[in-house]
Amino acid sequence: MQHLQKALQSIEFDTINPLPGEYIGLCRIPSAEGCVEFVKLEAGSYQPHIHDTIDAHLTILTGKGRIILNGAPYPFHPGSTFEVPRGASHGFTIETCTILLSVQDKPILDKETNEADIRIA
């Protein structure tokens, strides 16, 4: 597992501000179909939000905390996976710095227009 930790620590994340007062690290991997992103969440709370047009599969790579999915808390640790369908409310309580892999049917943030499919739940 040490090689995984080193590889993840070497990722260059862009810091983005998707919701007021919240900052996340984002590293998008080029993909001909859909969207593949590494997401870094520092310890703290991330308010529940909704993506109206995007389905996502999340895999926790490092860290510990809880995802709040449609109001229900689910603990996570490395290896945990979650399906987040379009329209589902989800937020996070992060205990230790977390890196997750998000595979989506399209990007949440359009880097060309800087528009995002995200709203507070």
Topology:
Blueprint: H1 2-9, E1 14-19, E2 22-29, E3 35-41, E4 44-50, E5 56-69, E6 72-76, E7 81-84, E8 90-104, E9 109-110, E10 115-116, E11 119-120
Antiparallel strand pairs: 1-2, 2-3, 3-8, 4-8, 4-11, 5-6, 5-7, 5-8, 9-10
Plain-language structure description:
The protein has one domain: Jelly Rolls (Sandwich), CATH 2.60.120.10. The protein has 121 residues and is mainly beta. The N and C termini lie far apart (36 Å). Helix content is 7%, strand content 60%.
Number of helical segments with 4 or more residues = 1
Let me know the largest β-sheet. Answer: 9 strands, antiparallel
What is the terminal-to-terminal distance?
36 Å
Query: How many separate domains?
Result: 1
- Taken in chain order, the helices and strands follow as HEEEEEEEEEEE
Properties at a glance:
single chain, 121 residues, mainly beta, Jelly Rolls, 9-stranded antiparallel beta sheet, two-stranded antiparallel sheet, 7% helix
Short précis:
The protein has 121 residues and is mainly beta. The chain has 1 helix and 11 strands, in the order H-E-E-E-E-E-E-E-E-E-E-E. It is globular.
